[in-house]
Amino acid sequence: MRNVMQEQDVTDWKERLAAYTPETEQERRDRNEILLAAEQYGTQLLYRSHAESHFTCSGFVMNPAMDQVLMVYHRIYDSFAWTGGHADGSSDFLWTAVREAKEETGIQKPYPLTGAILSLDILPVKAHQKKGVPVPAHQHYNVTYGIIADQKETLRIQPDENTAVQWIPVEQLPEICKEPHMLPVYEKVIHRMRCWKAMQEQALLQTAQPLLAWYPLHARDLPWRHTQEPYRIWLSEIMLQQTRVEAVKNYYARFLETFPDIAALAAAEQDQVNKCWEGLGYYSRAANLRKAAQTIQEQYGGVFPRTWEEVRGLAGVGDYTAGAVCSICYGLPTPAVDGNVLRVAARVMNHFCEIDRPEQKAAVTALLRQVYLDNPEHCGTLTQAFMEIGATVCVPNGQPHCEACPLSELCLGRQYCDALRLPQRTAKKARRQEQYTVFVLQCDGKFALRKRTAKGLLHGLWEYPNVAGICTTEEAIAQASAWHCKPTDLTQTVERKHIFTHVEWELYGVYLTCARQDEQFVWKTAAEITKEISLPTAFRQFF
């Protein structure tokens, strides 16, 4: 799992430097000199070919507890020092700082504490040799960021530049730092990183009142928001997993009409539930709904459980769904933290930890629990409000609507112009590619179907007969003959595709007229399939 922050063309890099707020007179002088040089030389300063002075980017790497610092022993400086390197043409100083931290130490999963510049300094560099080439004395316009890394990560040296990589307790920095002029810089950055962490937490803790004022005026009118009945809230939350709100509305109404309560759902056959679910996808949700309903009937006397632990123990219920049900239905301080909420939190806090890291979700959940505890009468509304703002205002994959956001004054991501870069996520593995030939076998107006028996995708659901790989016409006819269906005519072939979360199916459909209905299959008319059989979308596209 690696940090996947990508380099960007940061066109406003000079504005970002100007936005840095110095806290001392020396910092003010350094900033002003750097800004003057940036105006005079522009992007020339991004290259070390501007020999007298150029930009470098440093990452001050600390552990999550912020009591240890990761440093490298630099050959040039003959001292333990922070990580960093030349911009080398990049205007993305933050990305450069992360890149250098990884290259110099071997760590693979660092992340910026924030996108804000923590220090802007002019640092002198003495004359030295690099790879046998003399380098005259010059100065670095150094941009510093705070970076967090796990102490469990494997470290390695970069032999041509450093001789050691080591975690050092903060209190030992005065002993190991041989550059007296750098120690005050390090101490300053440590202090600012700790302050930033507190500021990030405080920003999220202040979200309740703006959200509670905003939500009643802007909430969408959704059918499940007219009730606190746990069966209906639970059903809506399960349906909304991986599925758009507009798609869910009709399914929600139809499902409740067919299975109006827990008892009805528990008593249903799985095929009935699947048919009602047809088209929503992720059919394991439907199976778990029925299984959970049966558990409620058997273990709780048909009454929906009332504690987070009990709700969380139901089949198919995770932390998010348990939090939503318990906060909305019972007013418990149990945040419902999903990708939408984590995105809002990342932007509000200007926090660059990948939101799909378990430790980040746990940290956000803990902070939001405190928000709920501070507003005990509004737990359900807070859950709905966080859902709503993530879905309609602080949107993914595009420009968030900051001008309409009630959290804009609190939002550190907006203030530091990082909202579009957030949240960060870990790199996704490429989807596995699989190929299948799907057989639409028709005999006397009926079509061959079977249930999937293999564990894994679509287990226990109906499908058209299929085999792995793409068959030629001759191979397809031979396969249908091997099934004893006596194919007589190939009427058409089609190509389709279906994408699951982690796998992509390339499907080749073969339509064959047959003379025999072999008993290994279930044969149904088109009308019977429409009325009785729940075909997953992967196969329904051949119907």
UniProtKB/TrEMBL annotation:
Q: Which GO terms describe its molecular function?
A: 4 iron, 4 sulfur cluster binding; 8-oxo-7,8-dihydroguanine DNA N-glycosylase activity; adenine/guanine mispair binding; metal ion binding; oxidized purine DNA binding; purine-specific mismatch base pair DNA N-glycosylase activity
Pfam families (UniProt xref): HhH-GPD, NUDIX, NUDIX_4
Listed under catalytic activity are:
Hydrolyzes free adenine bases from 7,8-dihydro-8-oxoguanine:adenine mismatched double-stranded DNA, leaving an apurinic site
Keyword DNA damage annotated = yes
PROSITE patterns linked to this entry: NUDIX (PS51462)
Q: Which GO terms describe its biological process?
A: base-excision repair; mismatch repair
Q: Which InterPro entries match?
A: A/G_AdeGlyc_MutY, DNA_glycosylase, HhH-GPD_domain, HhH_base_excis_C, MIG/MutY, MutY_C, NUDIX_hydrolase-like_dom_sf, NUDIX_hydrolase_dom
**Enzyme Commission number, as recorded:** 3.2.2.31
Cofactor(s) needed, names only, are:
[4Fe-4S] cluster
Give the record's keywords alphabetically: 4Fe-4S, DNA damage, DNA repair, Glycosidase, Hydrolase, Iron, Iron-sulfur, Metal-binding
Keyword Manganese tagged: no
Domain named Nudix hydrolase is located at 52-191
Protein task: Adenine glycosylase active on G-A mispairs. MutY also corrects error-prone DNA synthesis past GO lesions which are due to the oxidatively damaged form of guanine: 7,8-dihydro-8-oxoguanine (8-oxo-dGTP).
Similarity comment: family membership: Belongs to the Nth/MutY family.
Its recorded name reads Adenine DNA glycosylase
| Species name | Ruminococcus callidus ATCC 27760
